[in-house]
Amino acid sequence: MAAHILVACGNGIATSTVVASKIKSFLAEKGVDVETTQTKLMEVPGKVENYDLLVTTGQFEGQTHGVPYIHGLPLLTGVGAQDTLNKIYETVKDK
Amino acid sequence: MAVDLVIDKKLLLPHLEATDNLDALSQIADNLYAQGYVKEGYKQAILEREATYPTGLPSPRPTVAIPHANYRLVKQTTISVATLAHPVKFHDMGDVNHVLDVDVIIMMAIGEPHGQVEMLQKIVDVIQDDQLRHAIADAKDSDGLYQLLAKTFK
Question: Cβ–Cβ of A76/B127 closer than 8 Å?
Answer without folding.
Answer: yes
